[in-house]
Specification:
Helices cover 26% and strands 28% of the residues. By secondary structure, the protein is α+β, with helices and mostly antiparallel strands. The structure holds flavin-adenine dinucleotide.
């Protein structure tokens, strides 16, 4: 038996960020993942957008989450010797005069002052991108190359004897007071970070996930290029020699199958502001672990005091994961309370 502190199930953004923070605290961990090719974290565009466009408000806790996230991914770059995070403005293309003046008004509010620009710009070649009502940009935004980071981080885990590629079967878990046994490991606790696959978890499947499938395309443009991200119903993100175009939101079909319907929807929306042919290079689908009240799901099982969950990262996992993991580690190791909004005991 290999004695460790925690078994972590899932090496998506949630499990990876948490694993690293626990290792930093000197804890012995092992991460189990089946390496499914189309997970939410691998498919994600990885955008860190401090603003919610729908209501034009700042993201929840952004003052804390964003700086911590950028710092975390920059440290990973140092540790693993590669580039994962890139700062990049997101230009909002206004659909009409009303949206343009709403943005202007909001940009003067103290809450949004640091996050959106008050300048209406026309930075694009109109032959390529039509901006009849102008554009303005989000400040302090960027994106994480999620798949690249997860792959590099998995190698780091392997080097530290802290990764097992396997499907985790709940039936293989043995529980004793204050101890769990799985495979050849004896651990103080187990932390489930399974993303949407939590629907199969007999201990936490009662939690009110409201899952959202998303599809995203990798595209290229004829005779034109772009070095900033843009958004007008869909986003276009320059991504190492091509562009990501996304994403769809589907609450009814919860699977990882790509669909012609989603592809058409994304291309139709993009063609409303992009002139010229859009060439599709790849098409991916994943399921976001979204929750009915749009807040993450962290905490301990109501009966098993060594079963934990770190999940529900929703649509903004890149920005939220490092801050949430910090709170979770303090809770786990130093008995600090979890923020109430994210604690699963809100559903007891
Ligand atoms: C199309 C799309 C676009 C997105 N765009 C963005 C974006 O721009 N910015 C942003 O911040 N977020 C974005 N997201 C959301 C983001 O992907 C999630 O917030 C985040 O990645 C969730 O991470 P996770 O680790 O909780 O889940 P997952 O990524 O689903 O990871 C769970 C892991 O657990 C493993 N696993 C599960 N069950 C088992 C088992 N029984 N045995 C072994 N392994 C198991 C899986 O293989 C997987 O690796 C997007 C999502 C989608 C689908």
């Amino acid at each position: 038996m290999n004695e460790i502190d925690y078994i972590i199930v899932g090496q998506g953004l949630a499990g990876s960020v948490l694993a690293f923070q626990l290792m930093e605290e000197g804890k012995k961990i092992v991460v189990v993942d089946e390496n499914h090719p189309q997970t939410s974290s691998k498919v994600a565009a990885g955008l860190c957008n401090p603003v919610v466009f729908k209501r034009l408000t700042k993201s929840w806790m952004v003052e804390s989450t964003l700086p911590l996230a950028v710092n975390f991914y920059r440290n990973q770059e140092q540790l693993l010797g590669s580039n994962f995070y890139q700062e990049m403005p997101i230009y909002k293309l206004f659909v009409d005069e009303k949206e343009c003046s709403f943005w202007k008004q909001k940009s003067n509010e103290p809450e949004l002052f640091d996050w959106i620009s008050d300048k209406n710009e026309k930075p694009f070649d109109e032959n390529f991108i039509a901006t009849p009502f102008g554009t303005s940009k989000v400040l302090q935004s960027g994106f994480l190359r999620t798949k690249k980071w997860l792959e590099a981080f998995q190698k780091y885990l392997i080097k530290n004897n802290a990764f097992i590629e396997s499907k985790f079967n709940y039936a293989d878990l043995k529980i004793e007071e204050n101890t769990v046994y799985w495979n050849h490991f004896k651990a103080k606790g187990i932390i489930f970070c399974e993303g949407y696959k939590n629907i199969n978890n007999p201990y936490f499947k009662h939690l009110p996930f409201k899952l959202t499938k998303g599809e995203v395309l990798s595209v290229d443009f004829e005779n034109a290029s772009l070095d900033v991200a843009i958004n007008k119903g869909v986003f276009v993100l320059p991504y190492d020699g091509f562009y990501k175009l996304g994403a769809t939101y589907d609450w009814d079909n919860i699977d990882e199958n790509i669909t012609e319907k989603a592809k058409k929807e994304l291309l139709n929306k993009a063609q409303k502001f992009i002139n010229g042919n859009i060439e599709v290079k790849a098409h991916k689908a994943g399921v976001r672990p979204t929750v009915s009240d749009r807040k993450p799901l962290l905490g301990v099982h109501h009966q098993h005091n060594n079963f934990f969950i770190f999940n529900g990262l929703g649509t903004k996992g890149v920005m939220l994961a490092p801050w949430l993991a910090q709170k979770f580690v303090r809770y786990l190791l130093h008995d600090e309370p979890l923020p109430e909004e994210v604690n699963i005991n809100r559903f007891n």
